[in-house]
Structure formats: C-alpha cells, structure tokens
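User: Could you check the structure of this?
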Amino acid sequence: MVDDQPARLLSYEAILSGLGVECVRALSGRQALERLLKQSFAVILLDVSMPEMDGFETARLIRQHPRYERTPIIFITGVHVSELDQLKGYELGAIDYIAVPVVPEVLRSKVAVLVELHQRRSELERLNLTLAATREELRAQHAESERRLLAIIENVPVGVAFADMSGRFQYVNRAWCDLLGYSAEELRTLSWTDITHPDEIEYDRAQAARVASGELSHYLLEKRYVRKDGSVVWVNLYGNFVLDDAGRPIQGVGVCIDVTGRHLEERRRDEFLAMLAHELRNPMAPIRNAAEVLAQRLGRDARTQPLTDILKRQTTQLSRLLDDLLDVARLTHGRIELHREILPVATCIELAIEAAGPLIRERRHRLTVTQTLQPLSVNADRTRLVQCLSNLLTNAAHYTEPGGDIAIRAQARDGKAVIEVADTGAGLSAELLPRVFDPFVQGERSLDRAQGGLGIGLSLCRRLIEMHGGGVSAQSEGLGRGSVFRLELPLAPEHADAAAATAQASPGAKRRILVVDDNRDSADTLAMLLTAEGHSLRTAYSAESALEQCAAFHPEVVLLDIGLPRISGYELAGRLLAQDRSMRLIALTGYGQAEDRSRSAAAGFRGHLVKPVDLRELDSYLAQ
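Assistant: Sure, the predicted structure tokens are below.
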C-alpha cells in the first residue's frame, strides 16, 4: 500500500484485515521501491498524487523489475483523472482505478480476487518447476534406459533388426551384421528382400501381411538369407510390428537365430525320410502294377474287380501319405522349389479331378464343374497346383456322405483366378474354422479311418498357394451344412503359346521298351502292363544285363531304376547313352525331391517317375 497520507494507509489496512493478507505500508514511491526489493507482493495499491515521485513514475519503475512485470497495480486517486492519464496508467500496467473515498466492499472484493489469482499462479509455478524437474529426471532415466537397452541389443548373440514399412532397414545390431557379412551402413541401404532367398520372398510377404492386418499376432518361420558373399545361411526368424496409437503398423521388427548347424542335422533326417520313402515305394510299385495287370486280364469280372480296385486305391493312398510327409519336411525348411509356367486353370482342374476321381466315384458323389467361358491362366507350378486342387477335392469326398454333391467352380475376380470347391458334407464348426489350415488339424471323423489322412493336406495347400503369391480360405455355415474352400491365384497375362505348351501328344505309338530294375516284382509287373498296351518289352535285373539287352534289343525307351546295386542308374545311363544317343531314358525311383529330379536331368534322363508309377504320366512320356 503506497500513499503519502498515513491515515489512508491505516484505513486500507482496516478494510483488508479480514482477508488474511499481510499489508505492507510505504509513504512514498522511493520507499515502495525499497520494500519491493526485499520481498514479493500479490497486489500493489498505489496513490496517483504523491510528492517527489508520483504514482505513474513509481509504476513505470516497478514494471522495469523482472519480478513485477505481471504484478497487478490498482491506482487510488482523490482527484479527477483525465481519460488521457487513465490511458497512461493502463499503459504502465495498471489494471484498475479506485476513487477516494474508497468503498470498502469494492476494495476488499478486488483485492481478494487478485490475491487468490496470485496464490493460484504461485502454485502453478511451483507445480511447473516440479514437473520440469520430474521431466528432466525422467528424460535422464529414459536416456539411460535407452543406452542400456541399446547396449544389450547390440551385444546379444541373436540378430535384431528394425525396418520401415517399405522393408528398408533402419537399425541392425552386430549379430545381424555378422550373420550376413555386411556392415551396418551397408545394410541400411538395403531392404529385407535384398537378403532373402528369392524362393521365399512371396511367402514371407504373405506372412507379414497377415500380421500387419491383425490376422496373426506374429510370425515364426525358418528361412534362408543370402550373405554378402553369396552363401546361404538358415535362420529362425521371429517377425512382428511396432504399432502407433491407432493400432496401425509403423515399423517392422525381426529377431533371428542362426540355425544352419541344426538345419544340416535336419537335412540328414530328411534324407533318411527320403530313403525310407524310397524303400516303401519299392514294394508298393509291384503291388500297384499287379493290380493294374489283374484289372486288364480279368476285365470287368464282378467278383474280382472290387479286389483290384481296393489294391489300386490303397497303394494310391499310401503313396499320397508318403508325399505329404515329405512335403511337410520340405516346406518346414523351405526346400520346395516352384517350377512355374503359364497354365490354363481348366487343365489343372481336369488333372485334379482325374486324381480324386476314383474316390468320388466310389462314394457315388455328384460332381459338377462350372468355369467361365473366357479361359483363365496362371503362372504356377503344374504339379503343385494340381496337388492342391486334388487335396481339396479329396477332402470334400472324405467329409461328404455317399451320394452327396461336390462342385468345383472357377472364375476371374479382381485380377485373380478364384477356384472354389464346395460340398454338402459334414461342414466345419465355428471352433474348427479358424484352425482348419493348421498342421495335423482334422474335423470329426467316424471310426472308419481307412481313407483318413494325416491332417496335413490343407496346411500344405495353404503354404504352396502362398508361395505362388495367392491365398486359401474356408467358410462353412456350421456342422452338417457343407463347406466351401476357396483358392486364389494372380491371373497370368495373356500367353500366346499357352495352348501349345499344354497340348498333349497323341497316344497310340508302340515302342520298344527295356525295363531295368533290380526289384524283379516291380520290373515284371510293369513289363506286363506295358506288354498289354501293345509295346515290345524286355526286362533286365542288373546293370550288366541292361547293357547286354541294349546291344541286342536296341530299345527306343529305357525305364531305368536309379538305385541299382554295384553300378548306379546314373552311371548306367552314361554308358547306355554312349552306346546309342537316340535312346530315351526315363528314371524310375523312390526319390522324388527337387534335387533328385535335377540330378537325373543332368545325367541325361528325359523323364523322372516316382514309384509307384502313375500310368497316365508314363503314357504321356511314351506318347511324346
């Protein structure tokens, strides 16, 4: 309170006594300035008319002090103040004028409001100071945590990488660099597709898309990376995404472990499985051949035909189970390679119906096929696409009661070939539907499991189609209400030679054929089958006998078992071709993996048949 009249100061203090504030008196502007230097004030009551230094000059000097730039000043005046002087006071920081004589209620209410504002402002400033200190402390703690986390990530023995949504690397740790042979700076110029084996890019992209869409919480797979020096390393990769506040993926996260050593062990195990499959196929081949010979010789005898049909069905089933088991191992470790070509969808559907036809006919299902008038073509592996379609048809037959309906439909939709296999069978429960493509998952089956599979056909189908850049889905309205399995693949551009590429050679030409197999039952039964078709046949049970037979018989075609004793089929092939380059060699073997086919082609074989031989495939080779 600043006024050169002490009586006024006493009256102001009396008016404000009930507010619980400390009132400090000053009899001049100079004295007021001294008081202001010693302590802080919430409000200043300042008389305008004072000797030596009036209220306006005092207010100007108060405002120059940083502490009082915003302190409210109320001018009290006993004389009339012109509008010009009032404006001057407001410019100097005054917030109000009170005329003398002062109305106690007015002064008390105005000061009370200003004191409360001051208290609130002081509390806010103290809170801001506390928050600032807390933020600084948290910032320091966060920085320390980041340093510790980065040190841990940088030195863990597993690879850790972050990539933006285009796949370009943003951060890689030391283990990731060591794994791939690149520096961190080099990797930051690359994306994940630059280091991923080409055969696995489409499947990786499909899995990442399922995680980004929320269909999966993460993905875990074994895959191949290509190192800077061109060598291949096998890793287990855990992939996920960092999400923003709206739940949208904004950054990819990958953690990988080098499993090349374990992969070699598993490869040895897979080689054992391949050997086992070979040994199992050897006895299956003569059984299948014998069934075919019996069917040919006995004709349509009602008493014997069911028996020969059983033999053929069961050997086909055993062969399919062996293929599925081997395919699971290959898919798990990324060793299936696709041999793509432009294929008419109609041709693949026909081949799939041929494969599943015996079971469909046995169960007396009504099969309808609906396709668009415009031919549909896809860029796909013929064998794998037919395998997937026949799996869907076989499943439909298994789970549809005898006499039910199965439909296969093909159409173009949004740049894709969409193939649906629908049935009126057992349907899928709401609990099973989300898991139907998981390995070893099956629907409810009756006690009769003679035609049952291993629960891996649909899993194989999904993985193979995803490798083609497509997708597979299932829908059902519930148990007993049938199901629909939908397969989608990108449509291929128009291909002028597609029809020519898929044209089949005309059968009917009779050949001179030599069958070479150390398994006498397999050789003899196959010879019987081919003889019944009008071909001229010789058999040899060893490499030495085969060389003699070729010199005397001059066969056009040699069906040659690769797994011969003493002299392998590969070595024998070289000797035979050295005698006569015009002969056509077709490999007979229990080994059917991609590397086996590549090796037989390199040895000069023109075809590769896996036991038990599919006669339609053999006839196709002979016709060509």
